[in-house]
Design a protein that fits this description.
It is built from 2 helices and no strands. It is mostly helical and 101 residues long. The chain has one domain. Helix 1 runs antiparallel to helix 2. The protein is rod-shaped and about 100 Å long. The two termini are 54 Å apart.
Length: 101
Amino acid sequence: MTEHEKSLGHLFVGLLIGGTLGVLAGVLFAPKSGKELRSEIKEKGSAVLKDAKNIYADATTKAKQIVEEATQQALELKKDANRHLSETRQKTKEILAHTEK
């Protein structure tokens, strides 16, 4: 797992915990009856869960894009390295052939 993916995971966990604590604080300090309070906790919990799922989906999509881009860059670097290696081998052969004459 790359450092960037770890950062996205930490961000997701932080947002989830912060959102949950914010909702709980708001609900618990509001003057309401027990029935209203339970109903609001359920609604807020559903909203937080929905938001968390959206954040997770976005983070997952972004992480996949990052991995795909990194893979493409790695393949391009490998092609460049192989091309340079082939050119170097060819030049070495030419130099050796020239010095042997």
